Structure formats: structure tokens, C-alpha cells
Amino acid sequence: MVLHSTAFHARPGHRYQTSAKPVNRPKTIKLLTSALLGLATFTSALASFPVEEPLSSKLAFNTYVDTDADSLANYRAEKEGFHRWSRERGRMPRYDDKLLDLDYGDLNALHSTDVHGWFQGHTKLSPPEPSYSADWADWASFASNMRTKARSEGRDLLLIDTGDLHDGNGIADGFPRYNKDEPGGKEAVDGHVSNQIFAMVDYDLLTIGNHELYDFSVAKDVYQNFVPQWGAKYMTSNVKIALPGPDAPNASYAPIGSLFHTSVTPVQGLKIMSYGILFDFKLAANGIAVQAPQDMVQEDWFNQSLDRADKWGVDVFVILGHMPVSGDAGWEAVRTKIRSRFPDTPIAIFGGHTHVRDCRMMDSQTMALESGRYMETIGFMGIKDLQKRKRAGNRGKVKFTRRYIDANPRNFAHHLKLNSTRQLATKKGSFIRFIMNAISEAWNLSRLHGVVPQDYYLDRVPYGDNSSLLSLLADQVLPKVVRPSEKSRQDRKSLVLINSGSQRFDVYSGPFTRNDQYIVSPFKDRFLYMPDVPWGIAKHLLHGLQTFKKGTVVEVMQGGTQYSDGDALLRYGSGFIEDIFVRWQKSQWFKFLQAEKADRQVGLNHTNVNMKSVEQLEAEEDEELLKFFHKYDSLDKPSLGYCTVDQCAGRGDDTVHSPVPFYPNQPEYVASNPNPMPESDDEVVDVVFVDFMRKLIVDLLNRFHNHHHHHHHYHEEQKQKQEQEQEYGNVNDNGTCFEEKYHVDELKRWGDITTQLLYPRFAELEWQPRQGVVKAVAAQGRRAGKMGYAPLDLQTHFHLEEQLDTINNNAFLSSVTTSSTSSSSQQGITFKQIHSTTIASSHST
């Protein structure tokens, strides 16, 4: 879709211009191909020797090899090369899902947000993952075909994204590490290459997320290499960057993108005014300035943009924002300001950031939509009666519709009224998949560490359950991976502590590759230790961490941390949204239980049905219901997935699901106790923990040290202590100065382990199937098939995946560098022709 547009774009050297010409962006395929060829050179350094069974059981259980994970991995690399797992595309959703259609309007929008690098989609076999099995190629094909469909029906369609493009998947974050002075070093930043994959979908309106702003080098890469591809369509109304850099003596701040954007739709000529807004983000890198939305709407340029919209005769405001549609006062400030000038002009708001599916009507003519996370959801909004309103001189009401589309090929084909997912594919989509697979191989993301024998969940089961990931972490991973990693301290007992927030995603059964380590634990925190702590002090640390409310450590991506005072607004301003997402999951689950319990009572012919509140259900924790819904997907009820309850009318989800269970009472920290346990409180142990917790751990050690030595006076003198603290500062339990026995500078590095390496090393030790990888994965596939999840249709226009499955990496490297493929030649099309076909038209099908 090409929009005729004008914009106010305050980049240095750019003037305020009005143009009737289409906004043209550079051909991103050329940029990506160039990047790919550079990356291909890197693959020559990677040994790759395909074998029938990449991880043989005789190596996994070889008695002549040291039994630590690194020795096993090194042994395999030396004897057989790096073992790879040819990327599988996951599964189709369950065959019997009931689907709901989209309710189209005159103006329609498809919305992605918080992709976080999930360009290759969800590839695991366990539910609900097959419901989100679309990759970026499927999405590109769906978007292209939806444009064609909209045009043929006389409708307009916008493609919209609201930020956070990386941090959370290998294809965005797993690039080779170069020094800045090496070739490719300047481009070795998060998202540089994956942004080019993203750019192969022809979006109409975009804005920035906080994950583009934690690191100045990332933000500058976005400014220099990503924004120019979009022109004024990429909006950052309240985000500026220091140029040429934050430390330059003559630095000046300029918007990263345009301040606003005006466009006219190609089919109906609808006039659209747009803005791109970020929440009031407080943890941006030095050299990035974020203005609160409440202050932004008072700026002269914003008032002038409203003047322009009034003179122009705007038909609809389309406002993008990387902030949640519920709970952020910034949206109300923007809406109120616009309503002061345009009392009844339709406003469509597209949010993001908190990873939830949400919708609310801010007034009768304003809908706000948030569309999930991780390529699980494509949001849809339709606005009806815009043409009718336009013909009446911009008078009259419009009607909004919304739908949350499960991102998978089956649902995409359904909404296009196609008979088969094979009809979904486009030439561009096939090329995108080829490029993604090539990058995955070049970056060694397909390296296989092991095969996970079962599913492990973060919050689907209670802590202590055999399927609890946190229980696995505490009982197996910490003692078998972290404790042995410091060779010099193996003669000492140790307590190992870790925060549950270091785990970001469930671990599903199936191949565990290098890419999975970026998904499950994207943080790269090192482990530290405080040596020789009396057990009488150390044994209180876990409880202290769970109950200590005065301070809270907030961790964000790219190594950022903040020690907050527990204030929810400060946590939100830092970009920390996990607690918000957990509260949303909790609310969704208990609202389902509320409805389910009422239905049960009606089914039992109870004349007086008492609808219990969500709070009552939460307090009861109905074990019968929990056990029932903790079971695997079964064919006697809908498949697992989102069952969204939002604030807009009607059902939002396009697929009828049973909800994914949620168990709220998960520990914030877990520990692996010494083995064997200390015999007395005076026996000393090493306290091992993740490095970003260091201030909190040292604080607790000192508190428990004082408590331990003044135990008999502790309870009776608390009141006196509090009074003296107010007057004199920190005091100990005897009313004297607080003794700081432990100091941060005493901490030492514990081995070479990081949180991101926990599961790869554990997989090398424990997830080695005796029957071999191929047979183990095949058995898992058969189980998925019996549950109704069929393999995805892999056929594409050029059969690129078939070729990658049958040639080794040397042949692959040759095929890329010579710009031709044997499978493409069989179709009479070369690699160069694929390139040309892709950039010739963004709408080819």
C-alpha cells in the first residue's frame, strides 16, 4: 500500500516539506543480501559435518569422557563437529479449532507489536505453541494478500507496528560478536540484521519501543540505518537522540523519526493524521531524551499539527504508542487534547509494551487496541461507516470492530478465504524464509545441545510440580551446572540463589538449540559469590529475598538493572512489565474460573447460583479445577490458547480456546541448598548468586549478620531502632551503628557460567536421549499428531527449504556466494531472479 503523504520530520538537514509524491524507502533486500553475504564468510569458520543422528547416545553416555557439560560438548565438537538440527517449522494448530471471521470496515488495520525477534515463529510441538507457528514469511504473505483482498473489495488496509523489535530470540540477538574496529563491528548491535528482515513487510505506520533505547549504539543504529527506510512513516513524537553522540561537546537533540505523519489512503482517499508515542520511559541510555506524553501535547508543534489537521479536513486519527491501552494516563492526555479540537472525529489507538491482548473504548468514537507479544498475535481493527460520515460532511458516528488473530498459517488462510495454506505463500515470503534460515545457519543458531524430554512451565503448574521450570532450576540445574562451574571451591559447601525473573519462557519438549537459549533466558548475568558465610546467616537469605519489600531489583534487557524502592510507577517507568503481565494472566485465568464455576452450578441445577468473585476464587485456589485444566490438551475440549476478556463488546479472539492454566503463587527467588547440609550454624558456606542481585544480597547479609549476633535483643528493641533510624540513620539491633561486615568489593566471580548458558550446559549433561535424537524427536512428533497437530505444509514456490534439508553447509555457502540454487534452477529461477522478483513489487503474490 503506497500512501500519498506529508509529514513534519525534524531530522537534521531535513526541511518541513509538503509532497504529493509517494514516500519511497530504499530496497531493503539489497541491504540484507549484502549483510548476508558478509555473514556467510563467518560460516566458513564453523565446522559442520552432517550425521544421520546428530547426537549419538554413545557420546552422550561415554564413560571415558569427563562428566561435566563442557567436556561433553567439546568432545562432540572435536569428534563430529558442531551438531545442528535442521530447523523445523513447528506444527499446524489443532484441526478442530473453531474460528471466527474478521468484521471489516471502510478502514482496516493489521497490528503487530513486541515481536522481540520472534521472526521464525513458534516451532515447538506442545500446545499452545502450534497456534502461533507463523513465521515472518507467513506474515509477509498474509499482509500482501490482505492488501489485494482489501483493494478488490473497495476497502483500505493499514499495516502498523508499535515497537520492541528485538531482545528475546537468536535471530535478533545471536549475531557474531565483533570488536568495534573489526569489519562488521559497527553493525554488531542488537537488531541490526533482523531489522532488515522486519523491513521486508511493507508497513504503513511505525513507532519505537523502549527496547530500542536501552543502549545508545542500538538507538543510533535505528536512527541511521532503519528509520531512513521508512521516511516519515516511522514516528517518534516524544523521543529524541543526541547527535553526533551523547558526549560530543556540540551535541544537539533531534527526533529519531518524524513528529507526526499525514497520509491519504489509496482506495477511498481517507485523510489520516498519525503520531507515534512512547510511554514516559525513565531508563533510556545517555543521549536519549523521552518526553512525557502529557508534556508532549502542550508543545507548539503538536498544536500546529492539530491546526493542520483542521484545515486539511482530517477523517480519522490513527495514533501509535508503545504503551499499554489500560493503565497509562498518557493516552488520556493525548485523547483529551485531540477532543478539545475534534469532539467527534474517530480516533484509532494502537498500543503495546505490556505483552497483553487488550481493548477498550475510551469514548464512543475512540478504540484502543493492544495486540500481545512474540508474534503470537496479529491485531485487527475495522472502522465502519467512515465513508458515510465523510459524505455527510464529517458528521455521524462510526463503529469499531476488533479481533485478535492467532498468528499461524491456518488462520491466515482462513481469513483470506483460501482452501489451503499452500495458497498463502508469496515469492517474497519464500525469499524471507530462505534468508532467515541462512542467517540461522551462519550464526550457528541451529547448534543442537540436546532433546528436552518433557515440557517445563514457568507458571502453568505450582512450584514443586514435576513440570515446574523453577523446580527444575532449583533441584537440577543449579546444583549440576552452577555449583560445579567454580573448580577452586569444590571442597566448600555452597548455597546457590537465583531470581525467577531470569527465566523468560517455558521450556518445551523437543530439540534444544542455541536459539532456544536466547528465548528461555535472554539475560547474560554472571554469577558471583561471597566466601565463607556462616550457615546461621546464609540459611535466612532465601526467605529474606522472598519477603524483603523495602528494595526491589528491576532487570531489563541488554544488561540494564535498577535498584528501585519498590514503587510500581518507578518499575513501570524503567520498562519492567513482567509484574503487569503476570497480573493480567492471573486476572484472565480467574475470570475464566469464575465463569466455569457458575456454569457448573447451573449444570447441577442449583437454584441459587452465587457468582464468586475473582478474589474469592483466588483465595480458594480450586484444586479440582486446577488439576483438571493442568492436564495436556485433550480432544474433548477446545485447544489451549488465549481466552481474552477485555473491555470491548463481543468476543475478541479469532479462535475458540480453552485457557492456558495459570498458577499465581510462584516464588520470586529459588535456591539450591548445600549438599550435604551444614552440621551447625557456625559452619561456613559460599553464597553464590546472580551478579545483578549483589547490592541486595550484601544488604541482606549485613542485616542477618546483625540479627544473628544480637538475636536476644532483636524483638524488644525494634521500636527503639526505628526511632533512632529516623534521627541518626542506620542502627543495629542494639541501638548502635549498623555494622557492615560484608562489602560488595569482597565478591568474586563464580566460574564462567552465565544465566544464558544454564540450559545449554544442562542439556549436554541430562537431555541426551538414549535412543538417539532422530528417534526421540520422531516419537514426540507422533504424539503431537495424535493430539491433532499436523506438520506444517513446507512447500514453497522455490522449494528452498527442501534444498537446505539435503545439502551440507559447504554446499549452502557456495549456493549463497554464487547467487544461485539448484532447486531454484529446477524451477527455471535463479537466486538473482528471486532477489529481483522480491524487490520489483511489494505486492506480488
UniProtKB/TrEMBL annotation:
PANTHER family: 5'-NUCLEOTIDASE-RELATED (PTHR11575), ADL392WP (PTHR11575:SF22). GO terms for cellular component: cytosol; extracellular region. One of its GO terms (molecular function) is hydrolase activity. Residues 709-733 are annotated as: Disordered. The lineage of its organism: Eukaryota, Fungi, Dikarya, Basidiomycota, Ustilaginomycotina. Coiled coil: none annotated. Residues 714-724 have a biased composition (Basic and acidic residues). GO terms for biological process: nucleotide catabolic process. Residues 455-697 form the Putative 5'-nucleotidase C-terminal domain. This is Putative 5'-nucleotidase C-terminal domain-containing protein. InterPro entries: 5'-Nucleotdase_C_sf, 5_nucleotidase/apyrase, Metallo-depent_PP-like, Nucleosidase_C.
